[in-house]
């Protein structure tokens, strides 16, 4: 249900349309699969709609919706962890829903190696804490500034820097065997 006033409803609808791709991209990168990402997107916009009247127009909507998205993804990851469900990346034959790249039909050995790298990266990401994963995704995959991440995660800029640094170190240790194998 959208707000009663037409202009508020139209305004919210326009914001959803403008930010839905970004919300899905962040959710997918944090959860590692399409179904969970879709759940996060739905929960994000439901929560945003419920609290839209309280949205402070002085704040940036993008930062606000990032915060909601990251929190919904973290909540889902915690629920999954508590139920001991292993996070998995989409099947190798499932296309990346974020960007459809033109097919250049790589050689089978390159495709196999790329699939293995993708699985190793997904596995390494799943070993990060929720905060580390969120900070890493926002910084290195979304290109967000440290100050923006601090706003989203509600921590100080130095804490963001430390969290991203720890995430990069952990990922480096996890992925080091891949680099030495090539």
Secondary-structure content class? mainly alpha
CATH structural architecture of the largest domain: Orthogonal Bundle
Q: Helical element count? A: 7
Our Rg estimate from Cα atoms comes to 18 Å
Query: Biggest sheet, open or closed, and with what strands and sense?
Result: none
Number of separate strands? 0
Average pLDDT works out at 78
Overview of the structural elements:
By secondary structure, this protein is mainly α. The protein folds into two domains: 1-90, RNA polymerase sigma factor, region 2, helix turn helix motif (Rna Polymerase Sigma Factor, Chain: A, Orthogonal Bundle); 104-176, Arc Repressor Mutant, subunit A, CATH 1.10.10.10. It is 71% helix and 0% strand. The chain contains seven helices and no strands. The longest helix has 26 residues, at 6-31. It starts with 5 loop residues before the first helix and ends with a helix. Mean pLDDT is 78; it is low at 1-5 and 85-90.
Write the layout of secondary structure elements.
Layout: H1 6-31, H2 34-50, H3 61-82, H4 108-126, H5 130-141, H6 146-153, H7 157-181
